Amino acid sequence: MKRIKFILLMILSTVVAQQSMAQFSLSGEFRPRTELSHGYKTLAFEDQDASTITTQRTRLNFGFKNEFIQTGLVLQDVRLWGNQPQLVSNEDFATSVHEAWAEVFFTPEFSLKAGRQELVYDDHRIFGNVGWAQQARSHDVALFKLKKDFELHFGIAHHENGNLTNNIYEGPDAYKDLQFAWFHQKWEVTQLSLLLLNNGAPVMENGDQKTKYSQTLGGRVTTTLEPVKLAANLYYQGGKHASGKDISALNLLLEASLERFTLGFEHLSGTSYDDSKYKAFTPLYGTNHKFNGFMDYFYVSNHIGSVGLNDVYLKYDYSNDKWEFNAHLHYFGAAADLTQDFDRYLGTELDLAGTWKVNPMTKISLGLSTLFAGDSLELLKGGDSSAFQCWGYLMLSVTPRFIN
Fold first, then answer.
1. SS3 345
2. Which of 255, 290, 299, 397 is most buried as measured by Cβ atoms within 10 A of its Cβ?
């Protein structure tokens, strides 16, 4: 009997030891959000009724990792409350795959991560997961990663339709070909990132498809000069636009933070009404909701190829174990001339947001924003600049970890 117990104990110990060398995780996310809008993304009219919608993101996240491989699978359902029948009888609302990738470690420092995955770099300006949007963003890409005392990533993607008899790509993605290299180096109080992105957009010309390539080159640096933290972005875009015009565009960000306050300026170049070149900077695949006001007037599926933006902002951010509070003030101006008759002032936006951390797996967030629009914004967005513009939200976020 003692021998049997000893054998069972050895088998159990072996299984536990093998399992300890691998990590499996299973988690979820339930995130309904109600939004109230009277001038979100575009100017409302004075007599326009406010709208209220509720959307929800539901996710199931699977993860596995050992010394040889790492995998990720994220199943996602995004819906607008009320747009699906109570008695569902079709597959139009089926769960989608937000991420499905495998990473193979050739050595502890060198790996290949291939499949559908989020690309998030630095402050999310060029590559971000757009986590605020319920659907978020992910890419079909192969990513080579090298990590020593520095990090070097090389990504490559080529997109096609299902028809193998031709080489025509009709979407739905924003690019047909993409290659990028990202370098990151850390020192004691300073970090430097460099990015080179080659973006190929498909364009039909005379019945044939051509790929117009644009290049984005630049980077981000952060450092600390006690007690002030400093950050700067500088990106240049060149190459060919889908319209065939030459691109010459610039993005500059300067930021200084002292304790809970941040003062910053961002310039995204634009195309004037009388320009022959394409001078409008495009932040491509970034988390744009994070940067130029929460009311999303600029670069959130809009304002692309326009007069650009100058954004002067002051931010206050406070957090403790239970609460977060944010107050952001933005002063917006066009970076290029709209017309001869309109000035460049676009408006001033105030964003207020708070979060209550109910427990380690639950948060409740509340936000309210208002925009004091300039007359020139009517030329870009329509609507009535004198009307009261506001947007608010109430969001519940529950993130259980079923297996860790």
1. strand
2. 299
Q: Which residues lie below 8 Å from residue 342, measured CB to CB, with a gap of 6+?
A: 375, 376, 379
Give the integer Cα–Cα distance in Å for 341 and 219.
Answer: 36
| Alpha carbon distance 370, 347 (integer Å) | 10
What are phi and psi for residue 70, nearest 5 degrees?
-140, 135
- The per-residue pLDDT for range 169-201, each reduced to its tens digit, is 887 778 999 999 999 999 999 999 999 999 999
Which CB contacts under 8 angstroms, 24+ apart, belong to 170-178?
170/202, 171/202, 173/140, 174/201, 174/284, 174/285, 175/199, 175/200, 175/201, 175/202, 176/200, 176/201, 176/202, 176/211, 177/211, 177/213, 178/139, 178/141
Question: d(Cα 246, Cα 271) in Å, to the nearest integer?
Answer: 12
Q: Tokens in use for 383?
A: 């609507």
CA–CA separation, 385 and 193 (whole Å): 40
Strand, coil or helix: 149? coil
Nearest Cα to Cα of residue 119 among 146, 149, 154, 150: 154
User: Does the domain formed by 22-403 have CATH 3.40.50.720?
Assistant: no
Q: Tell me the per-residue pLDDT of 344-376, one tens digit each, with 9 for 90 and over.
A: 999 999 999 999 999 999 999 999 999 999 999
- According to DSSP, residue 134 is labeled S
